[in-house]
Specification:
The structure is a single chain. With 267 residues, the protein is α/β, with parallel strands linked by helices. It has one domain. The protein has eleven helices and seven strands. α2 crosses α5 and α6 packs across α9. It starts with a helix and ends in an 8-residue tail after the last helix. The model has no long low-confidence stretch (mean pLDDT 87).
Length: 267
């Protein structure tokens, strides 16, 4: 019995060591993925790593992303995540699975590590599917908007912490990231008045894109958060308040739109 007990203890010890090693490898890949991204540049306030050579044109994208980020209410230069560009879709999906996510979209943020991964194929697919519509939204498939979106998530994480982030409903989390990622574009585009954007959102005909029906959830969430911040004047703590619900916000938004209805401006 004593011999069996020793064998059992030894087996448990080896199993524990193997699990520790595997967990260490898991963390090292998520926290220190640099060997998989041999190309590196520092540009426009970003530290960028890529599995392919980084072009000069991409640096212009970073300039636009930086302008978007600097306009965010929570912006802090020292809180910027590192950017990892996956030209290989298989590589991006590897990190998506490693992070325990179900869907591979345009970007993936690992907040604890301060790393944001982006799929070249995913961003281009969104742009092709929706033909860059609606403008100034996540659905247009813009590199700079995708980068700013994940940065916005990371800034919220640094503001409220891991526990606070997990408590944020999806519509607020995604809507706030999309809204703040497009603040500069919304301010410069005369065709992006909030009333016109609400009208576009509720227009049944605008839901059909060139290659099929457009998933409007993210655009809806973005417009709702824009309404709460721009019309009602809420800051982030106000937005995250428990009494600010999705159904009440949608009802209030539609009522406000009816009271202020006007013909859509043509530009």
């Amino acid at each position: 019995m004593r011999l069996l007990s020793r064998r059992t203890v030894r087996w448990v010890a080896w199993t524990f060591c193997v699990l520790v090693v595997l967990f260490g490898l898991y963390l090292s890949v998520l926290f220190f993925p640099y060997p998989l991204f041999p190309h590196h540049v520092e540009a426009a306030g970003f530290s960028v790593y890529s599995d392919h050579e980084i072009s000069e044109s991409f640096k212009l994208i970073l300039d636009d992303a930086q302008r978007r980020v600097e306009a965010m209410p929570l912006y802090r230069a020292e809180a910027m995540p590192r950017i990892f560009v996956c030209c290989s879709q298989r590589r991006f999906e590897f990190f998506v699975k490693l992070a325990g996510k179900r869907h591979a979209g345009q970007g993936l943020l690992v907040s604890m590590a301060g790393n944001a991964f982006f799929s070249e194929q995913g961003i281009e697919a969104v742009a092709h599917r929706n033909q860059t519509r609606p403008a100034n939204s996540r659905l247009e498939g813009s590199w700079s908007a995708a980068i700013a979106h994940e940065v916005a998530h990371h800034l919220v994480f640094t503001e409220v912490g891991l526990r606070g982030t997990r408590r944020i409903p999806v519509w607020k989390s995604e809507g706030y990231a999309d809204y703040t990622a497009n603040i500069t574009k919304l301010g410069l585009d005369p065709g992006s008045k909030i009333l016109d954007r609400i009208r576009l959102l509720i227009d049944e005909n605008s839901r059909q894109g060139p290659t099929g029906e457009i998933d409007r959830r993210h655009f809806r969430w973005q417009v709702m958060v824009e309404f709460l911040c721009e019309v009602k004047g809420l800051d982030l703590p106000g937005l995250l308040a428990m009494n600010v619900t999705e159904s009440d916000t949608w009802t209030e938004l539609l009522a406000w739109q009816r009271r202020n209805h006007r013909p859509m401006e043509i530009h």
